[in-house]
Amino acid sequence: MKTKLSNLKKSLLLISTALILLSCGNKKDIIYFQDADIASISRPIKNYSPVIKPDDELTITVSSLDLEGVRPFNLVSVAFSESDGEIGRTAMQSYLVDANGNIDFPVLGTLKLVGLNRIQATNLIKDMLKEYVKDPIVNLRTINFKITVLGEVNNPGIYFIKNDRITILEALGLAGDLTIQAERTNLLLVREEGGKKTYNRINLTSEEIFNSPLYYLSQNDAIYVHPNNSRIKSSTIGPNTSVILGVVSALLTTAAIVVSITK
Questions:
Q1: Percentage of residues in the chain having pLDDT higher than 70
Q2: pTM, full prediction
Q3: Which fold has domain 57-142?
């Protein structure tokens, strides 16, 4: 009887140790911006404005007190639909930036906008319009600004952005934040620059992310969040291993109590 009780206690100890090891998490692997509390000096916010790239889809609206004067610059497109019974729906004409960074704009002709931010492109068009329209007002927007977030996040997917810019933190917020099983020190950001793909690593546990050129995302950026070692190991040995160990531990504990009582 003593031998059986001793064996049960040893088994219980081994299983309990295994459960503790599986459930243990390192604080340094989970908390964001761990060195931010150390830096007591405030830093100015960098002024960032994304630039226009090939394959960007733009809408450009021209306004003025001279309504007839601006009419040639505001083309309208019509989309037809038969499924819902609509004959057609009008919308502002959009302009796709070609591989050379140009768009074809009414009256003004070919405009090279690649490499310009929204303000610079707006001023360029406004200056060219002054020959035709008095005091023109130009509103330019990118309507296909999107990012992709994949991996260990709660809501992976493609997100269309209405604003001119978005930070990596806002992007992860849209995706429902990282899961507890995400690797926070080695995120992968894939970006297209100059016709080439670049692969960049991000460490969310350091405040240096706020000074990184990767803090603000660009059009078509893709973020991949790696699983941590615990997640990888659990997928190898089975996601229900810890549950099974818990049940076995409870059974062994009950058996040990019964043996002690009946001894």
A1: 67
A2: 0.70
A3: wza like fold (3.30.1950)
